[in-house]
Amino acid sequence: MSAELLRTLCYFLTGGFLIFLAITITRDNFRSRLNRITGGMLFFAGLGPMFMALGSVMTASSVEPGMFENSVIFRLRHIWEFFFPLLLMFSWQFPADRTDRIGHRYLKTAIFFPVVMHIVIVLFFDQLSSALDLFRVGSGAEGLSGIVMQPLSKLFSWPKLLLNVLRGYERTIFAVVNLTFVGAATYFLETGKKQVTNPKILTQTKWVLAGTRVGLGLFVLAELGHLFAPRTFNDTVITSLIVAALLSASALLIFATIRHQFLDVQMVFRQSFVNTITSALLVGIYIITVVQGRNMLASMFGVGADVISYGFIILLLLFFQPINNWIDDFIRSMFMRTRTDHRNVIERFSRQVISVFDPRRLRQIIEETLKTTLLVNRVYFVLYDDEISEYAVLPSDDFDQRIVIDRQDLMLRGINLLDAPTYYHSLSDYAIDSDLATLLEARGVRMVLPMKDADHLLGFVALTEKAAGYRYSSEDFNLLGVLSNQMVSALTNARLYTESLERTRLQEEINMARQIQVDLLPKEPPQLGCSQICAHSTPSRTVGGDFYDFIRIDENRIGIVIADASGKGMPAALMIAQTQAMIRTEINNGTPIDKMLQNINQQMALSSSSEKYVTLFYGELNTVDGSFRYANAGHNWPILVRKEGDVELLKTGGVVIGALPSMEYQSDTVKLNSDDLLVLFTDGLSEAMNEQEVEYGEERLRQIVTKHRHKDAHTVLKTVLDDIRKYDPTSPPRDDTTIVTLKMTNNIGRIDEQQT
Amino acid sequence: MKLTDREQNGVMILEPRGKIMGGPDATLLHDKLYDCIQKGKTKVVIDLSRIEWMNSTGLGILIQSYSTLRNSDGQLKLARVTEKIQSLLTITKLEPVFDAYDSVEDAIASFE
Fold first, then answer.
1. I need a labelling partner for A29 at 20 to 30 A (CA). Which of A188, A404, A601, A615 fits?
2. Which residue of A has its CA nearest to B93?
3. Domain formed by A342-497, architecture
4. Looking at domain B2-109, which CATH architecture does it have?
5. What is the DSSP letter of A653?
6. Which residues of B touch A613 (CB under 8 A)?
7. CATH number of A3-266
C-alpha cells in the first residue's frame, strides 16, 4: 500500500471521525449552546482533513495535472478555518457562560470575518482583482470621465494593493490570525478555569485546556516551520501536523467527555462512539485486506475478488458484535472505571451511607455525591426537625443559621404532594405568598427532590442549576429518584441510631439518678412514742426528684423534710442530694428554721442556674409538748387535719429554694394534739390525672384525708395511695409520687428509744 | 411549645402557646430573651393565656427568664396568668416575685 493512500485514508478517517463527533454531540443535546458550539467546532475541524483526502483522491484520479488545484472544492478548503472563531466562542462559553461580559455584542459576529475574507480572497481573487482593475483602466481616459475616474482610480489603488498583499502573503497572514484565535481561546479558558469551584468541572477544563494547548503547539510548529524551514516543512508535513493537532485535541476532548463527563451528552454517546471505532476498524481491515490484497488472494486461492469481498462482509457481520463488545469493555475499563456510570454512583453512595449515622456527615456525603456526579452547583437541605417539630432550611455555605419554615407555607405543602424529583418551575402555582418560594428562588433553585418515608415528608433537597449550564437529563431524574430513596433510609437510620443512643444514655443516667434518690431516702420511718410516721415514694420512670427525710435533732425533737426538685433525672437527683446535705449541716449548726432556709436558698441560688429550684417543707416536731415548728419554701401545702375534722394548711415560709438569691423566710408553729393527722405530699400526688386529663387535685386529697382522719398513719397512707392509683392507674406514675403521714397518738412526751 | 413575639410601646410581648415543659422550650424562650436583651429591649411581658399546661421545669424557665432580665437591668411581667399557673405561683410563693396582670395592656402600662 502506498504512503499516499495511507495518508488519504488517515485524512478520511480523521475528518469522518470529527464530523461524526460533531453530529453526535450536537444531536444529543441541540438545546445546549455549548454542545452546538462544540459540534460546530468539530464539524469544521473535520472538514479540514476531509478536503485533504478529497484533494489526494482527485489528484490521483485526475488526468491532467492542476485540475484539483483549480477546482472550486480546493479553493473552498479554507472553510475549515471556521474552527478557529468557534474555538474562541467555545472558550467564552466554557466552563461558564461569559459571552455577555466579553467585548461588544457584534464581536461575536466579527470574529468570523477573517475566515470569510480568507475564503473570499482565495475564491474570488481573480474576479476581485479584475474588478478593481476596471477603475485602473479608466485612469487613462480624458475629459469628464477622466476627471471622475482619476480620483476613483487613486481611491481604489489601496484596496488593490491590500488585496495583492493579502493574496501574496495569504498563508502567513491567516496563519497568524488563526494562531491569535487559538491563543485567545487558551487565554479565556485559562481565566475561566480560575473561577471554577466544582472539582469535576475543573478537571474537565484542565483536559480541554490540555487539548487546546497540544493543538496549539502542533499548529504553531507547522506554521512556524513553514516560515523558517519551508523545505523540511513541505505541504505534506504541515497537513500531517495540522491533522495531528486536530486529532490529539479532539482525542483529549473525547477523553474529557467520557471520563469526566465533559459536555452534556448522554451515555448513548459512548455507545455510538464505540460503534464508530468498531466500524472504522473493520472497514480499515476490509480495505487493507480486500482492496489491497485481493489480487494477491485471487492469485493464491484462485477465486474471484468478488467472492472474497462477499465472504469478508459476511465475516464482518459475524464479528461486528463481539468486536464491538470487546471495544466497549476496553473503553469501559480504560475510561469509565467506577466513576461516572450512574449505577456505580448509586452503589458507591449506598456503600458510603450505610455506616454513617451522623446526620451532618450524611448530608455532606449527599452533597458531595450530587456535586461531583451531577455537577450541581449548590445543594440545600430542608428537613423536618424533630426537636422543634418544624421544617427548617439547614445551615449551608449561604445560610449561617437554620431558617424555620412555617408549616402552612404553600410551597412546602406543594412539595409535600410530590413523589419524585421535580423541576422547581413546575411548582409555580405554590409560590404565592410563600416565604419558602422566595427563599428558593433567590438561591436559583432548579430542582426539588422530595424525601418521603411512607407518606411523611422527611424534607427535601433543593438543587440549583448545574455547572457550565448543563441540563438535567432523564438519566439524572432516574438517578435522583433512586438517590432520594436511599437518602430517606439513610436519614431514617441515622435518626433511629441517634435516638437509641440517646435513649441508652438517658436510661443509664436515670438508673443512676434513681439509685441516688433511693439511697437518700430513709430506709425506715422513725418509731416515735407520741406518733406514728409513715412514708412512701414511688419514683416515676424518668425520676423526678422527690425526697423525704427524718432527722433526729436531739432527744426531744425530730426534723421532717419533704422536697421536690424541679426537672428530672440526674440534675434533680444531685440537687436533692445537695439540699439534704445542707439541711443536715444547718441542723447540726443549730440554725433556726427561717434562717436555715434562707442560708440554703442563698447557697443554692448562687451555685445553680435559676431555672433549677427545690420546693421544700421542713418541720420540727417536739415530742414533749407536741409543738411543730415549720417553714414552707414553695412546697405543696401540707394538710393538718384536727381530730374534729378542721383542716389547716401549713403555708408559712417563702419562695422556692435556689431560684432567687437573698430571699427571706418565715416560720410558724402549730400545736399538734392527740389524734391530729398531718399529711405531707408532693405535686406528683395531687397532679395525678384521670383519662380525661383532669387532675386529682388538692381538694380531693383534703376530702379523703379528712374522711379517714381517725385511722392510723399507715392506713391513711394506703387509702390515699389506693384512691390515687384507682384515679390514675399509670404505672410507674407520670411524676414521682411521695406522701408522708404523721398521726399523733396519746403518748406525747416520749420518743421510742430503739430509734435511729 | 410555640412562641410568637411582637412589640408594643417599646415593650416586647412574648406569647408562648401549648405546654411549657423544658428542654427545647427552655432554649427557645431563652434564645428569644437573649435576642431581646441584645437589641436593648429589656421590658418584657410574657402573655400566658395560651399556655395549656406547665410543669416544674416550665416554672423554672419562667424564673430563669425573670433572673436573666433582671441581671440585664430589665423587667419581666406576666399577663393573663391562667388559674393553674396562678395556683402554682401561689404555692411556690413566687406570686410577689412576678408582677402579674390581668391583661397585656395593663402589663405594658405598668412599665411607665
1. A188
2. A655
3. 2-Layer Sandwich (3.30)
4. 2-Layer Sandwich (3.30)
5. E
6. 56, 59-60, 63
7. 1.20.1070
Equal CATH topology for A3-266 and A522-744? no
| E strand spans, A581-656 | 614-622, 627-633, 639-641, 647-649, 653-654
Q: Where are chain A's structural domains?
A: 3-266, 268-339, 342-497, 522-744
Domain A522-744 classified CATH 3.40.640.10? Answer: no
Task: Calculate how close chain A gets to B17, using CA atoms only, in Å.
Answer: 13
| Rounded Cα distance, B20 and B61, in Å | 8
List, in sequence order, every residue forming a beta bridge with A618; answer none if it has no partner.
A561, A631
**Partner B contacted by A683 (CB < 8 A):** yes
By CB atoms closer than 10 A (0-12, 13-18, 19+), residue A85 is: buried
How far apart (Å, rounded) are the C-alpha atoms in residues A492 and A496? 6
Q: What is the pLDDT of residues A510-543, one digit of tens each?
A: 888 888 878 888 888 888 878 889 999 988 877 7
Encode pLDDT of A687-736 as tens digits: 888 888 888 999 999 999 999 999 999 999 999 999 999 999 888 888 88
CA distance linking residue A403 with residue A544, whole number of Å: 34
Total Cβ atoms within 10 A of residue A752:
13
Strand pairing category for A668-671 and A627-633 = antiparallel
Task: Please tell me the pTM assigned to this model.
Answer: 0.49
Q: Are A653 and A634 in contact (CB under 8 A)?
A: yes
Burial tier of A608 (Cβ tally within 10 Å: 0-12, 13-18, 19+): middle
Which segments of A195-234 does DSSP mark as H helices, in order? 199-228
